Amino acid sequence: MPAMSTERWHRVVELFEQALELPEAERAGFVDSACAGDAEMHRELQALLANAPATGAWLRDAIGAEVQQLASDAARAQIGRRIGPFRLVRLLGRGGMGAVYLAERDDAQFSQRVAIKMLSYAIGSSEAIARLRDERQILAALEHPNIVRLLDGGSTDDGLPYLVMEYIDGPTITAYAEQHQLSVRARIGLIRQVCAALQYAHQNLVIHRDIKPSNILVDAGGAPKILDFGIAKLLAPIASFEPEARTRTGFPMFTLAYASPEQARGAVVSTATDVYSLGMVLYELVTGQPAHPTTASALESLQVICEVDPPRPSAVGPRAPRRELAGDLDNIILKALHKEPARRYASMEHLADDFGRWLDGMPVAARPSTVAYRVRKFVRRNKVPVIAAILAVGIVLAMCNTRAARELAEVRLTAGYVDQGRQALLDDKHLEAAAYLTAAWRRDDRSPAVAFMLARAVEALRPERLRLAGHDGTVWWAEFSPSGKQIATADDRCARLWNAGTGELLFTLPHDDMVASAVFSADGRRVATASYDGSVRVWDTATGHRVVSLTGPAQDGRIHYRKAVFGRGDMIAAVRWDGSLADVWDARSGVRVTTIDNAAARGPDVDIAVSPDGRWLAIAGQGPEVQVWDTTGWTRVASLPAKDVPSIAFDPARPRIATVSRSGVSRRVFTRWCMDRKRQSRRSRAGMGCIQRFARSHAARPSR
Fold first, then answer.
1. Rounded to whole angstroms, how far apart are CA atoms 536 and 551?
2. Which long-range CB contacts under 8 A does 153-160 form with residues at least 24 apart?
3. Mind listing the pLDDT tens digit for each residue in 41-51?
């Protein structure tokens, strides 16, 4: 008897189980009706029913084994077959819908080894064919060094689609780590590369949905490669690609051991699904064992996935790296494995960033950033200076012992005000908190903690006028347009223009790295954004369209621009992050006019300003000078002695420039300089706090 196809086996199972539900006297009639015209199926059903026990579970197991054998036999039968210019050499692996073969070019043109994925004859259903075609189209749209490349594709003479991919001659990511005895840090480095590839896929609206060690191979160069997008899902429709396959309700499309809770429940999947599955891979990568124990019952496994939290990796991992895993890395992995998608990392990029902070010894986002936690991280990074500081403080305290005794009562009273203010703030009694904390401030407790709590209390007493939500990471800049109708903000990835009256987001102005500033032109028709991606971009504030993109000298490599300003005519100037150089362009032509060597005003806190008439350009930094340049011939006309200057501004009404200095004991020095006489006109100190930035009103009134 010829081998029965998978679809026919499924039909036999379906009819057999329906027959078992009937009384024994009615089964013969049911078989006659269901198998009318198919004598072979009629005999199969009669034989099965004659030997059927009380349950049909044994038959499902037998049929499953037969299906697996059919698929295995069909896959091995393809070895030696020619597909296009390639000949199948060896079976590399077999999955639920098909098989992957090692193939070699067979047309004598040149030597090449590839991997070819094709469906098995035993599983040639229309759904499987559609999914393989979808995988082929998805891979064609993804080009990333950590995603396996699609080289070619087509259909066999029998009408079955196939994919030709690069051949990765390497082990799975977990096997590679064990073979090379990689440290925990090296394993995290591998996962960060996988994060980058999945972030790229997510940005191209593709969710993998089947991340597991066998789908991440490591090539000879040590680079991980993601493969098998067979059950990938598009986050949104793409005009050039209409998926053929349709996910069937109740049909599990995942690998159970690495599935997320939302996959187990049949709920909607998202990029957080891939975050969870990668967290499962990472758990196994650093501990050597899966996050959840395997069970014989699929139902029990699904329940564990949805309800049981895995133990901390440091509690189950090998003894040697447990100290590295404990704490931050435990928290990172468990955050990725949170049962609620919204409480996982918002993206693969955020997960990779937290890994980077862990590798650098910095505080991570996966745990509350308490003061004590930040102090511990600082001490670990700076052990020698901290020990020296502790010794120095001990000596000073010993010398000042009697004075400390006299001041103890005052300290206790001030501390009492602080404690009462803190508790009032926690109880949302903002007026009471402001009173206590103000009293502590007046008694000279001007610590950052008191300043922070006092600011929170006062802010809570003011009605909020407007909130601009939806930024990526830290907001580095905010500025009103000259008309006051728009607000420009800059964050970790882009600048944004908002309606200042309603808070509505008008336009997103993208960059490839942190945007440090977004400055309006004098007429408010343009805005210049300076970014750490090495570009200064000018945008039309009415349409949000990019007018021009300006870059520095190619030989300087990747440049980080801190701030860009508009000057006379079409001039735009931008200072680099350390203040040592500033580039000047003609914005109309995009040509760089000059690069200013500004060695006397180095950063890292730097500022750049242009006088209202465009005549002068000033650059400030750590000093020891603020340098002023004539924009007509780009000659330096003044060097104003000022150290550690984070902010400068020209007077809009008179030829004067003001600087803020943080040097000296007070760290709150404000100085005004007369540009026509190149001398200091006024110097004052702020009342309290540390001035970081200041600005002059557009309608500033002349003063003497």
1. 6
2. 154/84, 156/83, 156/118, 158/121, 158/124, 160/118, 160/119, 160/121, 160/124, 160/129
3. 888 788 777 76
Burial of 120 (0-12, 13-18, 19+ CB in 10 A): buried
pLDDT in tens, 286-316: 998 998 887 656 777 888 888 888 999 988 8
Task: Find the angle CA(601)-CA(604)-CA(605) to the nearest 5 degrees.
Answer: 80
pLDDT tops 90 at residue 416: no
563-600, pLDDT tens digit by residue?
999 998 889 999 998 888 899 999 888 899 999 887 76
For residue 675, what pLDDT is reported?
52
How many CB atoms lie under 10 A from the CB of residue 502?
A: 9
Q: Record the pTM.
A: 0.47
Burial zone of 263 (CB within 10 Å; 0-12 exposed, 13-18 middle, 19+ buried): buried
Query: Can you give 46-109 as a three-state secondary structure string?
Result: HHHHHCCCCCCHHHHHHHHHHHHHHHHHHHHCCCCCEECCEEEEEEEEECCCEEEEEEEECCCC
In the chain the domains, ranked by start, together with CATH numbers, are 1-53 (no CATH), 77-167 (3.30.200.20), 170-236+255-367 (1.10.510.10), 370-462 (no CATH), 475-682 (2.130.10.10)
Query: 685 has which bridge partners?
Result: 669
Amino acid identity at 150 = L
Helix (H) / strand (E) element for 435: namely: helix 430-442
